[in-house]
Specification:
Bound molecules: flavin-adenine dinucleotide
Number of strands: 19
Distance between the termini: 100 Å
Number of helices: 13
Helix content: 40-55%
Length: 418
């Protein structure tokens, strides 16, 4: 009798299991985690769906069939999985991928529009020589919810899901396949292998590589743009290449830059939390900033007090751009104060051993803490050498500060200095 094992109930496996169960075929889905988990390729709240395909016209019939199935799955789950906001592909008119999108549309009579102006989709302004192909059948999908919905539909139709049951090996023989899973051996007539980014481990004979694609979320600059119910998904080809569409919570924008993606061994190797070392570095930086910022601010404010604002206004009135006014008037006037502030901040930070002792770790220590420890436990000339270098550095610093007349200016002696 026919029976099918589906190895991996992620994006592809959960859908395969659903379709098998719908046809009345006994099927079991094995997964190392539970359907909808966040470690596979399906995470990140949204995925693009489109029909005018830059990958070529051959996919279009499959995509149209897939669209009907997404809608069917949404109905069976009682929630919207595909949000049909439409989609745009933006890029240079002659770009091969733009030509492929147009060819897909032409070959299958898709209802696309070609725009050359910026009015309809202000979220994605066109540059010179660019066009925008609007695909009305595109939209975005909810990946995690889709996997959960497909797994639930499969179970309702009679399939079984063995969650938290990693498969170690699949052996094929003349009568079928043996699945060696964590809970023992299982026999099936057929197997569907859908382990996604873990395929290298389960199918070592195939020359596969696994790459991590990083999604990023940004806040919206303009509240009227990137509305999740109306703004089309967008793919930009050429330079830079990326996909971009509203975050589903309506707060921000999701961007996937199409950069050379980082090769990884396995999804299990990815760092999924903020490393403690990063937190410690931030703690160290904040502790030293709290100490040093007041000194720097006082010095820069003193420098700004002597700034002639009338000269800035005169330059602006004569047509100088704000950056040129800043570069030629403001910055030279406060340069001394900025350099003095930087030196004071550095010296204060360097000198404060007590705070440094509280925020250092065994992995990363500041130089003063190292010197302190050295003086306590080691008696060799290293500390003397470091001390000499520090005296030389201090002498150079004094000369540099004096050269820029910060000290004279601060104490009101700059007239004499001039
Ligand atoms: C950031 C990002 C953005 C993307 N954007 C889009 C997009 O906009 N549009 C689009 O169409 N595609 C997009 N893709 C691609 C799409 O998401 C993936 O192609 C798809 O999710 C792959 O599905 P999968 O079933 O192969 O893998 P997965 O969904 O990861 O499923 C694999 C499953 O197999 C299980 N498994 C693995 N090994 C074993 C084992 N030994 N035993 C038991 N279970 C195992 C895992 O636990 C997992 O559940 C994107 C991908 C990423 C990463």
């Amino acid at each position: 009798m026919r029976s099918v094992a589906v190895i991996g109930t992620g994006t592809v496996g959960s859908m395969a299991l659903w379709r098998l169960a719908e046809r009345g075929i006994p099927a079991v889905g094995f997964d190392a985690y539970a359907p909808g988990h966040d470690r596979g390729a399906a995470g990140g709240e949204s995925r693009i769906f489109r029909t005018a395909y830059k990958e070529g016209p051959a996919y279009v019939p499959l995509l149209r069939q897939a669209r009907a199935l997404w809608e069917e799955l949404g109905r069976s789950a009682g929630r919207r999985l595909l949000t049909p906001v439409g989609g745009v592909t933006v890029g240079p008119r002659d770009h091969p991928k733009i030509r492929a999108v147009l060819e897909s549309a032409r070959a299958h009579d898709l209802p696309v529009e070609v725009l050359t102006g910026n009015d309809r989709v202000p979220e994605h302004p066109l540059r010179d020589g660019e066009i925008m192909v609007v695909d009305r059948e595109a939209g975005y999908l909810r990946p995690e919810a889709s996997v959960v919905a497909a797994a639930a539909a499969a179970e309702r139709a009679g399939a079984r899901i063995a969650g938290y049951t990693p498969v170690k090996q699949v052996k094929e023989d003349a009568d079928g396949v043996t699945v060696l899973a964590q809970d023992g051996e299982h026999r099936f007539s057929h197997v569907v292998m859908t382990p996604g980014p873990w395929a290298r481990a389960l199918l070592p004979g195939l020359a596969l590589s696994t790459k991590a694609l990083t999604s990023t979320w940004f806040p919206r600059r303009d509240e009227s743009l990137f509305e999740p119910d109306t703004c089309p998904i967008a793919i930009r080809v050429g330079e830079p290449a990326y996909s971009c569409f509203p975050a589903v919570d309506g707060v921000g924008v999701k961007v996937n830059l199409h950069l050379p993606w980082q090769e990884i061994g396995s999804p299990d190797d990815l760092a999924r939390s903020v490393p403690v070392a990063y937190v410690e570095q931030v703690a160290r930086a904040v502790a030293h900033l709290v100490l040093t910022v007041p000194y720097a601010v006082r010095l820069v404010l003193a420098g700004l007090a002597g700034l002639d604002r009338a000269a800035e206004k005169a330059a602006a009135g004569l047509g100088a751009a704000p950056f040129l006014v800043f570069w030629h008037l403001t910055l030279p006037a406060v340069r001394g104060a900025l350099i003095g502030g930087a030196f004071f901040a550095f010296i204060t930070s360097f000198d404060d051993l007590t705070v440094a002792l509280f925020v250092v770790t065994t992995d990363l220590q500041t130089l003063p803490v190292r010197i302190f420890n050295y003086m306590q436990y080691d008696y060799d000339p290293t500390v003397t050498a470091i001390g000499t270098l520090m005296v030389v550095f201090a002498a150079v610093a004094v000369v540099v500060i004096e050269r820029f007349a910060v000290v004279a200016k601060l104490f009101g002696a700059d007239q004499e200095h001039k």
